[in-house]
Each structure stands twice: as structure tokens, then as C-alpha cells.
Amino acid sequence: MDETTKKQPSADAKSALIAQNCSVIRAEATADELQTIHKIDVLASEQDISLSFLKELLSLPKNNAVKYLHAKARQAVENVYGDKIFLRGLVEITSFCRNNCNYCGIRRSNRTLERYRMTPETIMACCQDGYKYGMRTFVLQGGEDMWWTDERLGDLVSQIRAEYPDCAITLSMGERPRESYQRLFDLGANRYLLRHETADEQHYHYLHPEEMSFQNRMQCLQWLKEIGYQVGCGFMVGSPGQTPETIFKDLQFIRSFRPQMVGIGPFVATQHTPFADEPNGSVETTLRLLSTIRLLHPHVLLPSTTALGSLHPLGRELGILAGANVLMPNLSPVENRELYNIYDNKICLGDGIDHCYDCLSARMESTSRRIVVERGDFVG
Ligand code: 5AD
Ligand code: FES
């Protein structure tokens, strides 16, 4: 049977199933679990969380209350975006970076890494591939590489804008001056991803070298928003020095900043970085935080990240089942991927988009959601 004739439950029937799922879980819950479930309902209706309840959520054993948290988050995302999963085609345009973040494999002090910079022609070919596979957002990501001046990046953005008027262009090129963000926006970029990494200043300094500034990071996010970009912030789960208190600040920051996108994924210890011997972040904690963020900010576009898929064989499916609604398959040429080593043991290194597309579609079947051919803009 092909896709069009296969019998699928309607979106309404599916959300009814998920709603039922919440009541089934409630019916099976113990008295203790019901107390937590009640607090999850309050979290969802008030779109707010206390530090003590955050600590409780993060320390619960995997029980019915945790199942309920995920079911409630799925219900919240389906209320806004239905059963749709949006694709973002990721093009890792340069592995040169002037920064030296303590967690990141492409930090400038990592002299073991062979660096690359894609040509505009290669980048356009990646977009063409992505478009063929239904992608209507291209994410240009890279280290903070000074070769990509406003002039060069602007030319690239203009070219993509002209060839793909129906697509969103997302940039993820780090901190730049306000004028640079403005110029790129004027040339047709629509969205910008800049993870804040942590909303706790002290923790920020633990994760980054002295020359990097927490204030400037936050300032950049503010500028991007003022200019009119759809903005994505985010953080790693389980980064060294992270505590429930710093996570609480991240959640409060998300509540007040109201970004259109939030990227979170587990920290992955990476060789040739100062954090090479630290433990990886937890997949379970990441899933709980995905659901929590979904309930605090139901409209947010939330990717189920490659880092999650790299630490768990079903990581991306689990992320979707916890309330995520975006996937970011890699469009970079296979020969570049191993060199864009921001963290170790990244999946899909040898897989072209043809393989990844089929793989992701098959994986998403198990979530009863479907990949769509759409830009997937934020619904306000
Ligand atoms: N593990 C997980 N995520 C990482 N990132 C960078 N290094 C790592 C790592 N070791 C994330 C950062 C960055 C994004 C592009 O990738 O949060 O903002
Ligand atoms: Fe790339 Fe599965 S998504 S191999």
C-alpha cells in the first residue's frame, strides 16, 4: 500500500487517543503518582514551574507520573501543530571557529582536527538535495569563522533566497555584530539559532574561556529578536557544572524570552576538549526537560536532536514522544561530516540524505506522527 492509500487515523482521532492515554495513565497511577500528576496539570495550566517541583521531576524514578508528563506534552504539541513533524536541512558550512568553548570538538585549540569550509556551490547543491527530499528550511551552521564576512554570507543568503523563495533560511553562525544580523535579515534570512548554553552567569564562565561574555551572548539574542528573526536559544543537558538550579534559570529564561525555537540535547563528552573525561548527559533527563519546556511554552518549535539520537538508539523517536516536533537531518556532504565533530559518536556520519530521509520516515511511523513538506513557521 502506498502512503496515500494507507489508512491513517485522522488527526482528531489521534489526539483523542493521546488524551485517552493521559486518562489511562491516571487510572493506573498510585496515590503518590497521582500527587505528582496533579502538579503536572498545574504546571501545564499555569505554564510555570517551581524549583522544588523541577527537582522532583528530575529525580523521579521512571513511573506513571513520568509517562503522564510525556503524554501531556504530546497533547500540548498536537493542540498547536497537530501530528506534523517539520524537517530542517542542516548544512554545516564551516568547521573553522575562533572560539574555544570547553565542551566543543571544533574549538580552536583542537589542533588534531582538519578544518574545512564549503564553497557556495557545494552549499547550494546541499540545498538542492534537501529540497528534493521535501525540506523547506535550510539551516546554515558553522563555527565562528571570520572568513564568512557579511559580504560572503550575505551573497549566499541572497542566492538561496532567490532560488528558494518558498523556503525559510535559518542561520546558526554564532555571535556577530548587530549590523551583521540586520544585513543578513534584510537579505532574506528568517531565523537564527544561538543557544544561550546556560542562563547562569557563573556556569557560563565554567563552560567557556574567559574571553567569552555572557552579557554579549544575551545581547545577541535580544538583537536577533528585535530585528525580527524567529529566534532559537537552548542548552545542553548534563553539561559539566549544571545543577537543578542552573536548569531552573534556563527554564525561567525561556519563559521570559519566549523564543520561537529551543534546542536542547544531552552533553556528549568529546575528545581533545577540556571536558573529555566528564560523564555524558542523561537521555532520560533530556526527555523530561523536553516535555517540561513543551508545557511551559506550548507553541515552541522543539527539535529532537541528533545528540539525543547519538546517545540512545531510539533517542529521536523518544524525543518526539516527549513533545518535540522538529527533526534536523544533515545535508552536508558525507566527506565533511566527520570533520564537523562538535561531539563524539555522532550518528549518520556515513549516511547521505537519501538514507537518512528513509530512516527518519520509518522511525517516525512508530510515533504516529508524520513528516510534512512545509516551512514549519512558529505559530504564535
Ligand atoms: N555535546 C553536546 N552538544 C554540544 N554542542 C557543542 N558541543 C557539544 C557537546 N560536546 C552544542 C552546543 C552548541 C550546539 C551547536 O551544539 O550547545 O550551541
Ligand atoms: Fe541518518 Fe537514520 S537518520 S541513518
Which features characterize this protein?
alpha/beta, 6-stranded parallel β-sheet, disordered N terminus, 3-stranded parallel β-sheet, 2 domains, 380 residues, binds FE2/S2 (inorganic) cluster, globular, TIM Barrel, binds 5'-deoxyadenosine
Structural class estimated from helices and strands: alpha/beta
Total helical segments = 15
In N-to-C order, the SSE pattern is HHHHEEHEHEHEHHEHEHHHEHHE
CATH topology of the largest domain: TIM Barrel
| Low-confidence parts | 1-8
For the secondary structure, the number of strands is 9
Task: Note the main sheet.
Answer: 6 strands, parallel
Describe the strand arrangement of the main beta sheet, using strand numbers: 2-3-4-5-6-7
The CATH class of the largest domain is identified as Alpha Beta
Give a list of the ligands: 5'-deoxyadenosine, FE2/S2 (inorganic) cluster
Tell me, what's the shape? globular
Q: Separation of termini?
A: 37 Å
Integer count of domains: 2
CATH superfamily of the largest domain: Aldolase class I
- Identify the CATH architecture of the largest domain: Alpha-Beta Barrel
Q: What percent of residues adopt helix (DSSP H or I)? A: 40-55%
Write down the overall mean pLDDT. Answer: 95
